[in-house]
Amino acid sequence: MVGAPSAAADPSTDALGFLDSSARCSAPNTAVAFGSTANSRVAICKSPAGQYGYHGVRVSDGAKLVALATASADGSYVAKQDGVSYTVTSSALVVGDANGVIRRESMVTYHGPKTTESPGAAAQSPVAAPAAPQPAATPTKPLPPPLPAEVGGGKH
Fold this sequence. Notes:
Layout: E1 13-14, E2 17-18, E3 30-36, E4 40-46, E5 52-58, E6 64-71, E7 77-81, E8 84-88, E9 92-97, E10 100-106, E11 109-111, H1 119-124
Antiparallel strand pairs: 1-2, 3-4, 3-11, 4-5, 5-6, 6-7, 7-8, 8-9, 9-10
């Protein structure tokens, strides 16, 4: 076996996403895709009415983002909040704003349909001048404590 186990091993999953995590759908919604990167976990949920929702969490501190999402023709999902977009594909979570890509995190695990990698996908993720890292979401009130599966995701 090459390498050491990840410090933030994925928690258990089921058909709704990650157990004990904000990256999870609630019935009657269903998970159409969910995955994890070294720094994040995300679930894309679909309501019985056909609306999509993004449920993401930053593993290092448990910061959460729940936002409406849209499905793209290439199989990716995009959520937007406070001028920042979160694009979920089978290969990456891409966080960007009007200036370009802020961060691209490769998927370590992914459950869902494979997205098509097309020339259009590269256009959606342009390489921009370095931008200052920004938090995934700017909370307007203090965040509740992270769920058990979201504690201690990074080395400090």
